[in-house]
């Protein structure tokens, strides 16, 4: 078994290397070939026409699902805007400024965080063959996460807290569901500013979307990190003054699909967002480098004011330093915060380390918990701390 998976990993790694250097000819055995049939357990229509935007200021292009997947295999990021072409065309959103962190309760809540539950949760979450958003196992993984959140809520919520919590499993035109967990005060108004914390449920094998994709780092690590933050809010019986929501998005790897659907529904309902933070890759601490949190500053995807506030949270509540970093290469939507930024909401995005030090094993069969001692639940814990601080500081007024 060990040998087999090692051999497989080497083969896929070779395919990935080729993919990143743009050498996969269309129709090669790697990736999606021109005449690829669907595979049992998957539900893609490879001839489906999709409207795809490669950067937030680029003209959208029509292409088939097959071409979309081939672009992904070449390492290109994009938004698939077929179902959400009008995202960002609604009324202008209010701009918030962010007073310095001043909570007296965050420190106490942080004491409830540990690596025990994230480890167990990620062990399970990476046991699916793939969490690809249009596959049966991708759907099963979102069903499991929904059940886990319901179980935490039933088991841990205080009597006063329980009626203030809603947990919703959101159906989409593809197999996998997104999940929205909301804690709102009793007298919440529709106009209250909402604090949003996000991560994505799905994973992908970029070289072969029908292949294995355990997705430990991308983005199992973000998913279980914010789930742990939610667990701590339950244990602490935290009740916000304004609503706080945890979002677990389906279909990020399909072109930010779940987050665009949800951001669109927020926009259509005229909802106000005080700030959105996206956790995508939180576990990798590259050997021989300083342990730090990278604060992403790509201007098209994050808000400068909220990013400065995020830095203040790190300085106040974490004991590792921050460093500013920018996703390199041609501009492309890097994760779900881009959907919210496109809608005009204020966003920020922390990363496990500088991009050059981030987990290079993602997007294939190598993205597992024990790929290397560099995959660290202790490092991930810093992100759960940041999530707790963000949730409480912004929903306490
Ligand atoms: C913290 O700052 C907010 C925003 O300015 C304010 O509304 C709140 O009363 C302050 N809380 C404390 C505990 O000082
Ligand atoms: Zn990701």
From TrEMBL:
Its cofactor is Zn(2+). Its EC number is 3.4.-.-. GO terms for molecular function: aminopeptidase activity; metal ion binding; metalloexopeptidase activity. Residues 1-19 form the signal peptide. Keywords: Aminopeptidase, Hydrolase, Metal-binding, Protease, Signal, Zinc. Residues 179-379 form the Peptidase M28 domain. Gene3D superfamilies: Zn peptidases. InterPro entries: M28_fam, Peptidase_M28. The keyword Metal-binding applies. GO terms for biological process: proteolysis. SUPFAM superfamilies: Zn-dependent exopeptidases. Belongs to the peptidase M28 family. M28E subfamily. This is Peptide hydrolase. It comes from Mycena maculata. The lineage of its organism: Eukaryota, Fungi, Dikarya, Basidiomycota, Agaricomycotina.
């Amino acid at each position: 078994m060990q040998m087999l998976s090692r051999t497989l990993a080497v083969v896929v790694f070779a395919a990935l290397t080729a993919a990143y250097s743009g050498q996969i000819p269309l129709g090669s055995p790697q990736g999606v070939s021109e005449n690829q049939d669907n595979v049992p357990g998957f539900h893609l229509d490879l001839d489906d026409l999709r409207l795809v935007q490669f950067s937030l200021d680029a003209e959208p292009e029509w292409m088939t699902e097959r071409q979309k997947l081939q672009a992904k295999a070449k390492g290109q990021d994009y938004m698939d805007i077929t179902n959400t072409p009008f995202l960002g065309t609604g009324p202008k959103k209010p701009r918030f400024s962010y007073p310095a962190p001043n909570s007296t309760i965050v420190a106490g809540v942080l004491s409830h965080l540990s690596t025990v539950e994230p480890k167990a949760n990620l062990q399970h979450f990476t046991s699916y063959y793939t969490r690809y958003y249009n596959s049966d196992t991708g759907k099963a993984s979102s069903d499991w996460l929904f059940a886990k959140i319901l179980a935490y809520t039933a088991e841990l919520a205080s009597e006063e807290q329980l009626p203030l919590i809603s947990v919703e499993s959101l159906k989409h035109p593809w197999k996998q569901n997104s999940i929205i967990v909301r804690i709102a005060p009793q007298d919440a108004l529709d106009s209250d500013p909402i604090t949003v914390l996000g991560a994505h449920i799905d994973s992908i094998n970029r070289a072969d979307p029908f292949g294995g994709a355990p997705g430990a780092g991308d983005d199992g690590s973000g998913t279980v990190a914010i789930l742990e933050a939610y667990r701590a809010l339950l244990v602490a019986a935290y009740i916000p003054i304004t609503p706080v929501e945890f979002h677990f998005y389906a279909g990020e790897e399909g072109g930010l699909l779940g987050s665009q659907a949800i951001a669109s529904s927020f926009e259509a309902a005229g909802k106000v967002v005080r700030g959105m933070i996206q956790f995508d890759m939180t576990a990798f601490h590259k050997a021989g480098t300083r342990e730090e949190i990278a604060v992403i500053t790509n201007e098209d995807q994050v808000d400068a004011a909220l990013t400065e506030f995020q830095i203040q949270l790190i300085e106040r509540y974490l004991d590792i330093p921050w460093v500013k970093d920018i996703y390199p290469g041609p501009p492309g939507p890097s994760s779900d915060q881009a959907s919210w930024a496109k809608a005009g909401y204020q966003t920020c995005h922390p990363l496990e380390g500088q991009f050059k030090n981030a987990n290079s094993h993602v997007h294939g069969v190598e993205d597992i918990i024990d790929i290397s001692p560099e995959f660290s639940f202790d490092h991930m814990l810093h992100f759960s701390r940041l999530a707790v601080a963000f949730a409480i500081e912004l929903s306490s007024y």
